[in-house]
TrEMBL record:
<dbReference type="InterPro" id="IPR006680">
    <property type="entry name" value="Amidohydro-rel"/>
</dbReference>
<dbReference type="Pfam" id="PF04909">
    <property type="entry name" value="Amidohydro_2"/>
</dbReference>
<feature type="compositionally biased region" description="Basic and acidic residues">
    <location>
        <begin position="333"/>
        <end position="351"/>
    </location>
</feature>
<protein>
    <recommendedName>
        <fullName>2-amino-3-carboxymuconate-6-semialdehyde decarboxylase</fullName>
        <ecNumber>4.1.1.45</ecNumber>
    </recommendedName>
</protein>
<comment type="pathway">
    <text>Secondary metabolite metabolism; quinolate metabolism.</text>
</comment>
<keyword id="KW-0479">Metal-binding</keyword>
<comment type="similarity">
    <text>Belongs to the metallo-dependent hydrolases superfamily. ACMSD family.</text>
</comment>
<keyword id="KW-0210">Decarboxylase</keyword>
<dbReference type="InterPro" id="IPR032466">
    <property type="entry name" value="Metal_Hydrolase"/>
</dbReference>
<keyword id="KW-0456">Lyase</keyword>
<keyword id="KW-0862">Zinc</keyword>
<feature type="region of interest" description="Disordered">
    <location>
        <begin position="331"/>
        <end position="351"/>
    </location>
</feature>
<dbReference type="InterPro" id="IPR032465">
    <property type="entry name" value="ACMSD"/>
</dbReference>
<comment type="subunit">
    <text>Monomer.</text>
</comment>
<feature type="domain" description="Amidohydrolase-related">
    <location>
        <begin position="3"/>
        <end position="327"/>
    </location>
</feature>
Length: 351
């Protein structure tokens, strides 16, 4: 079974929140044709998208063609709206969470859903997390790497993480509102440099602050292979060693990083090998970033190309790790045997 842990979705008919709540930072879907649209922010094109991003039928067609059995679907980070009043951001969250829940209900063998919550207010976020996992049957929450410039070690978020651990809610941390945005507009460096750096800062903040020590059973995963975090972890350990007056944890950062999970979206088998050597093959989950331009095609290619992985390790990374991380039991694929093998061979050949 192949599970694509990292994919994004948005309602086709997302309401115009600017008319109701004011401000021009709300994302708006502007249709450009029958199978395409622009996500608009502040009157400018934020991202061009196709019906892949809202149509379950189109997604399933692509999944069958590319050999994916299950997609884990989560919101597009631009919709987090942490900058907005909490009640308005909650309305945005609920629309997406309801849409994702209905998409899963309509296709329960093909999709697993993650929700979103308004992190700018912890109590509101906790209530919506409760609704997501206990009413809508979503299997986790996607959150951003910072909340209005405050790192994830902000004291205001402690209760949110406490409840996520108590309710065993997996968290998928995705970069948004990245650092150094004034220095990265050229060359699309926001995506290739800003996002990996932003993810590293989020991971380091959770560790250095003591949050991961305080909540050892908290289930946390990071997009894009953890960004640059895995590669600067030894430097974080060195800082912990030489600055004892800054220590807030009993052990160095690498001790707590063992509890993290990462998707496999780093494109290179050498990087995958590094992730596995440092964190273990049971902590890596195949993820493609479907349906955006930087996605891996076909999903899982970097795992397939990793020659030194055993078939059992590949089996875990390509699907079973994600199901375990998301507390999914007994998920079965309706497509078995030769049909699935044919899809995979077709995806590899590019036809």
């Amino acid at each position: 079974m192949r599970v694509d842990f990292h994919t994004h979705i948005i309602p086709e008919d997302l309401p115009d929140f600017t008319q109701k709540y004011g401000q021009d930072r709300w994302p708006l879907m502007h249709r450009t044709c029958a199978c395409g649209a622009n996500i608009m922010v502040g009157g400018k094109v934020f991202r061009e998208v196709t019906d892949q991003v809202w149509s379950p039928e189109k997604r399933i067609y692509d999944m069958d063609r590319e050999g994916v059995d299950i997609q884990v679907i989560s919101p597009i980070p631009v919709t987090f709206s942490y900058w907005a009043p909490a009640d308005a951001a909650l309305a945005m969250s609920r629309i997406q969470n309801d849409f994702i829940s209905e998409t899963v209900k309509g296709n329960p063998t093909r999709f697993i859903g993650l929700g979103t919550v308004p992190l700018q207010d912890a109590q509101t976020a906790i209530k919506e997390m409760d609704r997501c996992v206990h009413e809508l049957n979503l299997h986790g929450i996607e959150i951003g790497t910072n909340v209005n410039g405050n790192n994830l070690d902000s004291p205001e978020l402690i209760e949110f993480f406490e409840m996520a651990e108590k309710w065993e809610v997996p968290l998928f941390i995705h970069p948004w509102e990245t650092m150094a945005r004034d220095r990265t507009p050229r060359h699309n460096f926001m995506y290739t440099i800003g996002m990996p750096s932003e993810t590293a800062l989020a991971a380091a903040s959770l560790i250095w602050s003591g949050i991961m020590e305080k909540f050892p059973k908290l289930k946390v995963s990071f997009a894009h292979g953890g960004g640059s975090f895995p590669y600067i972890l030894p430097r974080l350990d060195k800082g912990w060693e030489v600055w004892p007056h800054l220590r807030l944890t009993t052990h160095p950062p690498s001790h707590y990083a063992r509890n993290f999970y990462f998707d496999s979206l780093n494109y290179d088998p050498l990087n995958i090998k590094y992730l596995i050597d440092r964190f273990g093959h049971d902590r890596i989950m195949q993820g493609s970033d479907y349906p955006f331009l930087l996605r891996e095609i076909p999903p899982g290619k970097v795992i397939d190309d990793a020659l030194d992985l055993s078939e059992e390790q590949k089996k875990l990374i390509l699907g079973e790790n994600a199901l375990r991380f998301l507390n999914v039991k007994g998920k079965k694929n309706k497509n078995e045997g030769n049909a699935r093998d044919t899809r995979r061979e077709t995806a590899k050949s590019g036809n």
